[in-house]
């Protein structure tokens, strides 16, 4: 069945309640591990690698009776086949140098792109390190790697240096892969490819079902992958994440080629590869991102948020535990607002009732004492905001800039719709905000292109919007 038929009725995804230019849409909107509904039941026959999806409906068959009545209902895709076991069985995790050397030889002898995935323990551990790496390549099969005892995977990285890596939502895995010595030189991101091709649902399970006709279980997507030993069902789940990834890549690559977007995708993939080597952005004053901090009034109370945040971070790093599991943000805000002076009062506050939190009561009280004793000149001060203010404040701060932003947004929305693209993938909303807030002194397509290029926009993005954006940037009232 063609991609067109399996996508019948599909429209470009736009989250309900989101701004029409995708403001509020982030890279987290379409996570690789976003749960999708899966069909229960056995998968009796392992999938054929050449399988392209369920057979077309009678209406789509070339031998269908042309005189038969045509239904006005949209075509219904056949039920997906549950994919519950890898075709070669679930491999055991590679955990020794000798086993790794064997894997390097196998992968070197394989052919074609390499499907790659990584599992982390987000929400459980302090770091975002990889706790399992999955690989699959034609001629080499599927491999699961335990990076904890292996430590360094540079030898494997060298063996795959000239190969294309296929990942889903690569931006989420590249950093943890780089940490263990694995960096792609050539990349294909199936999630990003699906966005550029205009698919409505771009999660791995959704794409595997709609394009290949198989449903993937996603029950372990939020599991604690630092668990050892890893349960058999988790290993099966991990292996299935790469089982059909290169098949998916081939279909999406063909669709991008058909739509004339293959070159755009290549630029996006190259940007991901280049960005993998950049150090992670270090945010100043990370405590200011504590959920609920907008309720905390006054510098003294904010100093209590700061003190508790850093106390929690120290404990979390020492225990290698996610900060929110050590002390929830809601507890920090409650203590900052009420400023308890003793343990009994502290433990009555929301978020301080858990046994592990109670055991650390002295640490929290010491942090509050520290904030209480600060001189006024050591209290937090409001820092100047870099770049443009939040869009909802533009009309008050600079009505001319607000109108300029509205015109630019309409250009982006119209261009994105014309090319069946999510607006946020056509151009970063931040780039448009920065351009509208401080446009070049002399507005021309050349100057606008240079500005967008300086922000990090890719050539294909600039080419699609630069002329129309340059035309709407000037204030019509000043003409």
From TrEMBL:
Which CDD domains is this protein grouped with?
Answer: RNaseD_exo (cd06142)
Which GO-annotated molecular functions does the record name?
3'-5' exonuclease activity; nucleic acid binding; nucleotide binding
Pfam families attached to this UniProt entry: DNA_pol_A_exo1, DNA_pol_A_exoN, HRDC
Q: Which PROSITE patterns does the record match to this protein?
A: HRDC (PS50967)
Where the record annotates domain HRDC, the positions are 298-378
Where is composition skewed (Low complexity) in this entry? 66-82
Q: Which domain of life is it from?
A: Bacteria
Task: Kindly give the InterPro entries that the UniProt entry links to this protein.
Answer: 3'-5'_exonuclease_dom (IPR002562), Exo_C (IPR041605), HRDC-like_sf (IPR010997), HRDC_dom (IPR002121), HRDC_dom_sf (IPR044876), RNase_D-like (IPR051086), RNaseH-like_sf (IPR012337), RNaseH_sf (IPR036397)
Give the protein name, as stated in the record. Ribonuclease D
Q: Where is this region: Disordered?
A: 1-89
Q: Where is the composition biased (Basic and acidic residues)?
A: 28-46
List, in alphabetical order, the GO biological process terms annotated in this UniProt record. nucleobase-containing compound metabolic process
């Amino acid at each position: 069945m063609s991609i067109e038929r399996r996508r019948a009725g599909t429209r470009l995804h736009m989250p309900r309640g989101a701004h029409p230019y995708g403001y509020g849409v982030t890279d987290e909107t379409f996570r690789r591990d976003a749960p999708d509904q899966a069909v229960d039941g056995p998968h009796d026959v392992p999938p054929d690698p050449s399988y392209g999806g369920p057979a077309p409906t009678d209406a789509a068959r070339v031998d269908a009776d042309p005189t038969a009545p045509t239904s006005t209902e949209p075509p219904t895709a056949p039920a997906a086949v549950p994919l519950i076991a890898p075709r070669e069985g679930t491999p055991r995790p590679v955990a020794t140098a000798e086993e790794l050397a064997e894997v390097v030889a196998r992968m070197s002898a394989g052919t074609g792109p390499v499907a790659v995935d990584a599992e982390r323990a987000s929400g459980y551990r302090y770091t975002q390190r990889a706790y399992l790496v999955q690989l699959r390549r034609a001629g080499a099969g599927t491999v699961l790697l335990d990076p904890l005892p292996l430590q360094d995977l540079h030898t494997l990285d060298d063996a795959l240096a000239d190969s294309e890596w296929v990942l889903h939502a690569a931006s989420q895995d590249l950093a943890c892969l780089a940490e263990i010595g694995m960096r792609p030189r050539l990349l294909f991101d199936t999630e990003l490819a699906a966005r550029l091709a205009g698919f409505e649902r771009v999660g791995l399970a959704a794409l595997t079902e709609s394009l290949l006709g198989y449903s993937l279980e996603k029950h372990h997507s939020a599991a604690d992958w630092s668990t050892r030993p890893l349960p058999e069902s988790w290993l099966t789940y991990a292996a299935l994440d790469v089982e059909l990834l290169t098949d998916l890549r081939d279909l999406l690559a063909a669709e991008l080629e058909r739509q004339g977007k293959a070159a755009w995708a290549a630029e996006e993939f190259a940007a991901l590869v280049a960005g993998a080597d950049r150090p992670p952005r270090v945010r100043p004053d990370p405590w200011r991102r504590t959920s609920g901090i907008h309720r905390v009034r006054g510098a003294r109370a904010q100093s209590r948020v700061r003190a508790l945040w850093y106390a929690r971070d120290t404990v979390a790093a020492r225990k290698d535990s996610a900060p929110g599991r050590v002390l929830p943000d809601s507890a920090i805000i409650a203590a900052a607002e009420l400023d308890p002076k003793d343990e009994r009062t502290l433990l009555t506050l929301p978020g301080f009732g858990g046994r592990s939190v109670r055991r650390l009561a002295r640490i929290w009280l010491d942090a509050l004492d520290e904030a209480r004793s600060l001189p006024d000149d050591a209290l937090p001060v409001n820092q100047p905001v870099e770049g443009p203010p939040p869009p909802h404040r533009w009309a008050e701060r600079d009505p001319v800039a607000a109108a300029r932003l509205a015109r630019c947004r309409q250009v982006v929305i119209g261009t994105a719709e014309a090319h069946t693209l999510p607006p946020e993938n056509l151009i970063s909303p931040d780039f448009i905000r920065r351009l509208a807030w401080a446009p070049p002194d002399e507005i021309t397509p050349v100057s606008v292109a240079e500005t967008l290029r300086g922000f990090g926009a890719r050539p294909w993005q600039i080419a699609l919007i630069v002329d129309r954006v340059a035309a709407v940037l000037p204030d019509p009232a000043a003409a």
